[in-house]
Write a structure and sequence with these properties.
Blueprint (H helix, E strand, L loop, with lengths): L2 H22 L3 H21 L2 H26 L12 H21 L16 H27 L6 H23 L5 H32 L3 H29 L2
Amino acid sequence: MDPNILYLLIGITLTFVSLTAPLQLHGNFITLFWASECVLLYWLFQKSKIVLIQISSVIVWVCMLISLVMDWDNIYRDTSIYFSIIFNKGFITTLYTAVATFALFKLRQNDQFKASGFLGFGMPSGLMFQMVSVLLLFIGGFLEVNHQFIFYYPSINVNQLYLELYVFSFVLIGLLIIKKTSKQFSGIIILFIGSAVVLVYLSMISSNFILQEYILTNHKYQWLFTTGHIFSAFFFLFIFGYIVRQIVKQKI
């Protein structure tokens, strides 16, 4: 038998299996299934060079994203529900989809056969898969931090302070990774990151003052506010100083 026919039959079979996932599985297991399948289908496309399998993998990937958004709504909607920190179905599912999307980025990056698209629509680029994987990882951590602090400290809006800290931490780690993998930052990236960090810091000043007033008035959770505020300010100053040095260095 021609290997291409075999690959086509396998791809069609997997596509039909993916359609039965919502009927046989429930909740986040559908998302996990589709995340695994989209990577498998794209790998199979690279072996067979059958464009239909590539298109199927992208369709399944889009279905995975839609299913993930539904999972976020179902899991994190009620903040009074207890979840284990990090090791819960919401964060693990998001992390798995981010890893699967990053795997698609690596496969797309090594793809020597560039399909033109389907019905006039181009196939997603490797850069898109990479950006979506980072975005999924960011959103997953954001929702996790927000849920945990609201659950454990429902009487105080300390979650907003630690969300600010999370954003700065995520940006800082991202800058360090980019510095290790790239010799020089793009001017647009520098301006975008710098503007976003300053905007987040300025937008949170008023809320942090209100939170500080509440804590000083009620004499509760002083250590929680002090720790979050100090680290947030430190990370902000570090990021801001680093961005300024890059701007001066590159004369943007």
